[in-house]
Amino acid sequence: FLLFLQVTCNCFTISNGEMQDVGVGLYPSMSLLNHNCDPNCVIVFEGYQLLLRSVREIQIGEELTISYVESLMPTRERQKQLKRQYCFQCDCLLCQDEEKDAEKLAGEENAWKEVKDAVNEVRYPKSKEEWQQILTRCQNLLSSNMEHLPDTNIYQLKMLDCAMDACINLGCWEEALYYGSRTLGPYRLYYPGFHPLRAVQLMRVGKLQYAQDMFPQALETLKEAYNILKVTHGTDHSLMQALMEIKEQCESIMRIQ
């Protein structure tokens, strides 16, 4: 039981190139890093290799910090998870001012609670039929809440992400781009500066634009992703190599045209 508790408090969630969870691992030296809801470092993975990357200038003597939880959550939920899993109360600047909480929960409460429940019920589908069921539910909720929830509401944002994933898995590229484009404004709001999740989202949207021959728009989106990825992942990362390849293809096509 003691070993289980130690793993729970010190393990890292291993993610793939698109920041999707694929497992957990123990990295003893990295477990020494403390938490901040607005950290100066992020952790990304190259396979099972953990990489610690700084996302802003760090002063001499300044402590390196990472976020133990998803910063998109409202302050109370972040603190509840930190208390439950890591047994401490966070008093960072982000938790003290709660500046963005009102925007994160904007819109009619009944509407976003329904969307929140729907998002929490989603399990990774194993078939096209299951993806279609998820897409249909997302479409219905997004349509019915058009006037009740802004895209900046975090549960509406998660629903848009879910709809985008479903469309990609079903090959509905135009609709996937529609949902993905709607997420970029909220992502910019909640993941300012250099954040790997924003970079990955920009790359996904850029690839959808490229697939639909929207080459000027795709190039701008991919450039924005590149400027973030070179900080959060570094130029040698496989995700950066994939981004550079599609970016160069886009540039070549535009030169020919």
UniProtKB/TrEMBL annotation:
Residues making up the signal peptide according to the UniProt record? none
The terms under GO molecular function for this entry are: histone H3K4 trimethyltransferase activity
**What is catalyzed by this enzyme?**
L-lysyl(4)-[histone H3] + 3 S-adenosyl-L-methionine = N(6),N(6),N(6)-trimethyl-L-lysyl(4)-[histone H3] + 3 S-adenosyl-L-homocysteine + 3 H(+)
UniProt lists the gene as Smyd3
Q: Which InterPro entries does the annotation name?
A: H3K4_H4K5_MeTrfase, SET_dom, SET_dom_sf, TPR-like_helical_dom_sf
**Keyword Ion transport listed:** no
**Listed Pfam families:** SET
Q: Name the PANTHER family for this protein.
A: HISTONE-LYSINE N-METHYLTRANSFERASE SMYD (PTHR12197), HISTONE-LYSINE N-METHYLTRANSFERASE SMYD3 (PTHR12197:SF288)
The answer on whether this UniProt entry bears the keyword Transferase reads: yes
**Gene3D superfamilies per the UniProt record, alphabetical:** 1.25.40.970, SET domain (2.170.270.10), Tetratricopeptide repeat domain (1.25.40.10)
Query: What is the superkingdom listed in this entry's lineage?
Result: Eukaryota
Single biological process term from Gene Ontology: methylation
Q: What is this protein called?
A: [histone H3]-lysine(4) N-trimethyltransferase
Taxonomic lineage of the native organism: Eukaryota, Metazoa, Chordata, Craniata, Vertebrata
> Do you know which SUPFAM superfamilies this protein is assigned to?
SET domain, TPR-like
